[in-house]
Design goal:
heterodimer; A: 343 residues; two-stranded antiparallel ribbon; 16 helices; 4 strands; 3% strand; B: 399 residues; alpha+beta; 3-stranded antiparallel β-sheet; 5 strands; flat
């Protein structure tokens, strides 16, 4: 197990490195840099940018240096000999947001934390909702509820989540008379974390979690149902039934355990899906998570801010996949013992 | 039965009466036991594609979905003719007009499909435009009529429409109008052209990429395979939508809308090929070991012949099925990008561009018909899913 863990962590490092290069290439790709855009804008308004600040920014972030140097500085910070001077994602410095004129970490604030909370809550939601439904649908194949759930699942897969978000926002407003936009009561914004604040977040979170989790839930129900059906049609189940095993025990003993496997392995595909969903839903509902700010950063070429968000989302996904792999290894000895060659 | 138990060597039954000697005069056919009835034989002799068709036909929902999609793709060929208005024709007197209903009977008398004219009043209390039907005079919808002139596919000029508004002063907004007084139905029809082709083009891009990379990895194996596997893992661990957004943000603002359109298709395909590449690779790896492939190798077939003559046909069907299942995610991706304003830009109309107008909650409350483009999106995505499921089941007809 320990060997598997170490191996898995070692694979993660190059993955993250490659992702960081990719992200950097993408945020660098638009022609010109933010300072030039800003200069042009200010000159068109007849203002002049403070030359000192310009020079300071250029120097700090080395915008005139070649791209690979910029990448190294962004990722690993600046070094003099063996002494770490400043900056670098690895040392927790996310860079400087040109648009907001603040270090990225200050602009971002609670957003990263809230993104993690929303993502975790969405995964929990997907699991809690899809598990009983899928088991019911598989054990009662072709019953009315099976058809109903299958139909709802298809609708959930096909409807863009932003539309569901809009409609739910509207009806929540009519039925409950509350404004659902946002993640907490306005009074708590900018306040340090406290129990009351957490409670408020939970109160406001159910609509975003519902909307973000819905497509994932639909997909999960479909996959788990198919897996369980495959398993239930195998001969050992028939044999067990013929020998008079109680139905519930027959279900729980092996078929369910085996079909649980993909349930956990699917975090790998579920998490990117959820994060994608959260971007668009958070724009519609103006949630203070990564989505809206990423969008505006991309529009204004605020490269370090956009890069930090992209990097953070990828990091979250890679960690999520790692956790799911570890859980899978705990669950399934075939993976743990490295006999994965079996097809 | 009884003579089995009490068999006597003389061949006589215990009662003493002899059985007549039996001779079958029918010609002897040594393969008689193997022959089957003609109906079954047809299936046994059918080619692979014919069997797939036979199997696909049994999947009623998939056939229906295929028909719906075929109709839609036919429709995008003649949008100009089907839409009552042009893509950008504005009717400034009718801004945010609600959908009109088509009536058949006027004062108890049947006179065919017609609409009533709309009376417009500004409700100063809610600052809302209120349209009421003027039920005095029915106005018949015209069919195969001359209306807004257009250039068919930008080439041939024409002005014939399937149906047009009754006259110059009476509008025909079957699905309402938007903030510039443009007909939603016409815009949805024009948007269909973009939204449906973008999924197709995007899938072509990802198909080519997936075939190439998956084929290389599956054929060469070894470090090529490892490299591909690792890069796919990297690509898959970055959430798609943020990546699409970041790539779409790269497209220069100075590009013409047409270039942006192609840019978006390439971006959609660029990220989405991983699934197809994996499918190609795993199929190739398992097929390489099949008996017929080894047999071909032993008979001295060249690698090219093996790949194109033997391997390709057996996994092409699977690929087509997975490509069909990949199209909906492209269409949804385009819709999301355009909805967020980083996708296709205004003069070109897609369903996502139309939905961009329905971004805030006022729309849901006041002008819900602006959200109508979502319905074709759902229909198309569902149809592609059903069709893909049917194709996937049919792709393996020997099961």
């Amino acid at each position: 197990m320990l060997r598997y863990l170490i191996q898995r962590v070692l694979v993660m490092v190059p993955t993250l490195l490659v992702i960081s290069m990719l992200v950097f290439a993408i945020i660098q790709a638009p022609p010109g840099d933010f300072l030039e855009t800003m200069m042009a804008e200010m000159q068109s308004r007849g203002e002049n940018m403070d030359q000192d600040k310009m020079d300071f920014l250029r120097k700090t972030y080395g915008l005139d240096e070649p791209m690979y140097v910029q990448y190294v500085h962004w990722m690993f910070g600046r070094w003099e000999g063996l002494e770490h001077k400043s900056g670098g994602l690895l040392f927790g410095d996310l860079g400087y947001s040109f648009e907001h004129n603040l270090p990225v970490s200050e602009v971002v604030g609670d957003r990263l934390m809230l993104t993690v909370i929303v993502s975790l809550a969405s995964i929990l939601f997907v699991w809690i909702v899809s598990f009983p439904i899928a088991v019911y649908s598989a054990t009662h194949q072709y019953s009315i509820f099976d058809y109903v759930f299958t139909f709802l699942g298809y609708i959930g897969l096909a409807t863009p989540s932003f539309l569901i978000a809009l409609v739910l926002l509207y009806f929540a407003n009519i039925w409950f008379g509350t404004s659902i936009g946002g993640m907490m009561d306005a009074a708590y914004i900018g306040q340090p974390w406290s129990l009351a604040k957490i409670a408020s977040v939970f109160e406001h979170m159910w609509i975003p979690v519902l909307v973000i989790g819905l497509p994932g839930t639909a997909g999960m129900i479909r996959r788990l149902r198919a897996n369980l059906l495959d398993e239930l049609n195998k001969q050992y189940v028939t044999t067990g039934r013929a020998k008079g095993l109680p139905p519930l025990k027959l279900l729980l003993r092996y078929p369910l355990r085996i079909s649980l496997n993909p349930f956990i392995a699917d975090i790998g595909s579920l998490l990117p899906e959820l994060i994608s969903g959260s971007v668009i839903v958070s724009v519609v509902m103006s949630l203070p998570i990564t989505g809206p700010m990423l969008l505006s950063a991309l529009r204004s070429q605020d490269m370090y801010l956009a890069g930090s968000f992209l990097m953070f989302m990828a990091f979250l996904t890679v960690i999520g996949i790692f956790i799911s792999d570890v859980m899978l290894a705990l669950l399934d000895p075939r993976i743990r013992l490295g006999a994965g060659a079996e097809k | 039965m009884s003579d089995l138990t009490s068999h006597t060597p003389s061949g006589r039954t215990p009662s003493g009466t002899g059985l007549p000697h039996f001779v079958n005069h029918a010609p002897f056919d040594p393969y008689a036991i193997d022959s089957v009835n003609p109906a079954l034989e047809k299936i046994y002799m059918a080619s692979q594609w014919r069997m797939m068709w036979l199997r696909f036909r049994r999947h009623k929902v998939a056939v229906a979905a295929g028909l719906v999609l075929a109709l839609m793709y036919l429709a995008i060929l003649c949008v100009e003719f089907l839409a009552p208005y042009g893509q950008h024709s504005r009717n400034v007197d009718y801004i945010y007009a609600p959908p009109q209903s088509v009536h058949w009977t006027h004062q108890g008398k049947f006179i065919g499909p017609f609409v009533y004219a709309l009376d417009y009043k500004l409700d100063m209390e809610n600052l809302q435009r209120v349209y009421t039907e003027n039920v005095i005079e029915p106005r018949l919808i015209r069919f195969f009529c001359e209306g807004v002139p257009y250039k068919f596919w930008g080439l041939v000029e024409g002005n014939t429409h399937l149906f047009c508004p009754p006259d110059e002063f009476t509008p025909l907004f079957l699905l309402g109008s938007d903030r510039l007084g443009r007909d939603m139905l016409s815009r949805i029809l024009y948007g269909m052209r973009i939204s449906l082709t973008i999924g197709l083009l995007g899938v072509v891009v990802s198909f080519i990429l997936g075939m190439t990379f998956g084929g290389l990895a599956g054929y060469y194996g070894g470090w090529v395979d490892d490299l591909l596997q690792r890069s796919i893992e990297v690509l898959r661990s970055i959430p798609h939508l943020p990546l699409w957004l970041a790539l779409a943000a790269i497209l220069p603002v100075t590009w013409s809308p047409m270039l942006v359109y192609f840019g978006i298709t390439i971006i959609l395909g660029l990220i989405d090929w991983t699934g197809l590449a994996r499918a190609v690779r795993s199929r190739l790896l398992s097929l390489r070991e099949e008996d017929f492939c080894v047999a071909a190798q032993l008979m001295g077939a060249s690698p090219g012949r093996i790949i194109f003559r033997h391997l390709m046909p057996s996994f092409m069907s699977h690929l087509i099925a997975s490509a069909t299942l990949a199209i909906p995610s492209m269409i949804l991706g385009e819709t999301a990008l355009s909805f967020l304003g980083l996708g296709i830009r205004a003069p070109i109309t897609s369903w996502g561009v139309l939905l961009n107008e329905a971004q805030n909650i006022n729309v849901v409350a006041l002008y819900p018909w602006l959200m109508l483009p979502i319905i074709p999106v759902i229909i198309v995505v569902l149809a592609f899913n059903f069709l893909g499921d049917g194709l996937r089941d049919a792709a393996d007809p020997y099961r």
